[in-house]
Amino acid sequence: MVPSQPTAAESEPDGLEDRLRRFATIWSRAIFPATATSLTRPEFETHLLPLARELQEALHAHPFDTAPATRVGTALVAAHCTDPEALGRTLGVVDSYLVLYCGMEELTAEDNRARCARLQHSLAVGFAQALRERTLSEQEAIARSALAARNDAEDALHATQARFHAVFEGAAIGIGIADLEGNVLEVNDTLTQMFGGLEHHVRSRNVSEWVHPEDAAHVWRLYDELVRGEREHFRVEKPFYRNDGTVLWTNLTLSLLRDAEGTPQYQLALMEDTTERRLLNLRLRYEATHDALTGLPNRTLFFERLEKTLSAGGGARFGLCYLDLDGFKAINDSLGHSSGDRLLVEVADRLQSCATAPGEMVARLGGDEFVALTTGPDTQQGVADLASRILHVLATPIRLEGRELTVRGSIGIVEGPSAGRSPAEVLRSADITMYRAKAAGGNRYEVADPEADARAITRHGLTTALPAALERGEFFIEYQPLVHLGDGTVHGAEALVRWSHPQHGVLGPDRFIPLAEHTGLIVPLGRWVLEQAVRQAMFWQRQLPEGALGGPLRINVNLSPTQLHHPGLVADTVEVLERIGLPPGALCLEVTESALIGADEDLLKPLRQLAEMGVDIALDDFGTGYSNLANLRRLPVSVLKLDRSFTQGMQQHPADPVDLKIVEGIVALAHSLELAVTVEGVETGAQAEHLRRLGCDTAQGWYYARPGPPEQLHMLSLADAV
């Protein structure tokens, strides 16, 4: 019997060594009564501690290897734990307590349990092999001695026959003797019972009648070599049919017996019944390769099948569907995990009904992720049909706890020739494609695209590298001048962050700002940009002659939507300005129009506080957010930055009259609301002249200068001052 589960206090020892000792204590208490040893129980527990450590290290090993568990099974037999009950109790203790005391926190409970099941399997194999070797060695030696004794002197014949009979009939394994033609001459009771208990059904048969369809290819070749005298013995795993038609699995050792002159005379067969152990191994194998909840093949078995599929040559093709349920977390959160599990079981049943053709299989990778694999000559059409069938069967509502739930799924498809691809590569591509389907709205499938995969991998790499890049100082700022359209003087500059990536070179903000927004790194990155820009503006203030430009040189810094919602926006901005000493009026924070569409007072409050301090707020990309122009009155902005799309028509000659009218109207509206107007994307002198005549206040663009180092703006400002 396996000891009862420990209490909460008992299950949380201080360290690994304490947990190992507790495991060894439970183990020794379980198997000591079934062990023939002269050791005391504490001594036996000490003997088990290194074996427990081997199991723990095997459970944690990378890569995972079950060989230590096999050695542990062998060591148990060496320690005289030869009673089958000792093996059963050992497997029970490992099943109940190894993961509890020694499990890996890095792995999921399902993966810990899968590893534990495989360790149990290997431990049982090691125990059985050691016990078999021990038994076969003893019994074979005794049997050989008994048979050889039959040829001894006449005066010892009676004693020899008595000893042979005792060994032959009392052996725990099946023993049979046949002549060189394969006719069975003698069998012991154990072998008779193994075949169903009818001795005449065994004695009267010839060895050649025991052919089985699952015989290994080399079994009968070895047998022929043995009866010809070319080998002395061989050992194989061989199945037989019993008298009732059931299968008997054995470890068979077949030896050649010679007379005193060395001439082959008999065959000696030693059979160990391994049927139950084989069934145990099959059960453990099933548990290690199938999902406990749904009964589907699990990640382990699927990877084995996929690896086998991808290693097949001859122009073989495959198709894989990677399915993730849409909104499953919401079901778990609202109805509970028990309902979520029942939903997964129903989904698994429906998926199995879709993959019934030869070469198709469905597996559960974990959570709400499933995969379906198909092979054949036309997998391009076959995998698309499989994905369509999956979406179709999921469309039927599932009734759960009196409710009808509609399950949707996103599927990523990878299809192509098997050669030249690894399982990890295929799964990664399918996963990326599945998320592309989910991003497109879900309830659909998408087919893998190598270029899209490469972009997704690059995005993932950039996302992962962002935090370290900020710490390593890989970001820098370029500045683009803001020019006063009235007199052409430099009015200020917009700070534009760049990333000097070690592999990809200099990246613009469009490559990494959305990633920083997604990860939350935009807040520390934005604070760094603000501080660097304010520091640079303060440097310009000190370098330029006092009053040279008629006012302070302004610095424009962009704010992302995430920064707008950050509670420390006002405090961080005030702290930077005060510490560096830049007047608030020399700072302008740019906010995109789309970020303020429908903004409530809670969102506008920080901007109002900054505006009241003297910080200018610019509404960037104005005209692209489809906002109500009348809504401008309630926004705390002082500058409109007109999107370049409104002024591109002014680059041609003559200028587009519609663009002129639109810009003229916007400028008139802005000035009536006491808002300055800045135009971005100015690329020609004619465009700049049109904007000046229309009353725009400031402009920026390649016509004046491209974004560059701060020295560029410094030189432009000095030139204006002169």
Architecture of the largest domain, CATH level 2?
Alpha-Beta Barrel
Q: Any idea what the radius of gyration is?
A: 40 Å
Give the oligomeric state of the chains in this entry, treating copies of one chain as homo and distinct chains as hetero: single chain
Which residues sit in consecutive blocks of at least 5 with pLDDT less than 50?
A: 1-13
- Can you count the beta strands? 21
- The amount of beta strand, in percent, is 15-25%
Q: Let me know the CATH homologous superfamily of the largest domain.
A: EAL domain
Number of domains: 4
Category by helix and strand content: alpha/beta
Report how far apart the termini are. 97 Å
CATH top level of the largest domain? Alpha Beta
Q: Biggest β-sheet, characterized? A: 8 strands, mixed, barrel
Main sheet strand line-up? 13-14-16-17-18-19-20-21
Percent helix range: 40-55%
Question: How would you state the average pLDDT, rounded?
Answer: 83
Number of helices, where a helix is a run of at least 4 consecutive DSSP H or I residues: 25
Task: Assign an overall shape.
Answer: elongated
Examine the coordinates and then state which fold CATH places here, giving the name of the CATH topology of the largest domain: TIM Barrel
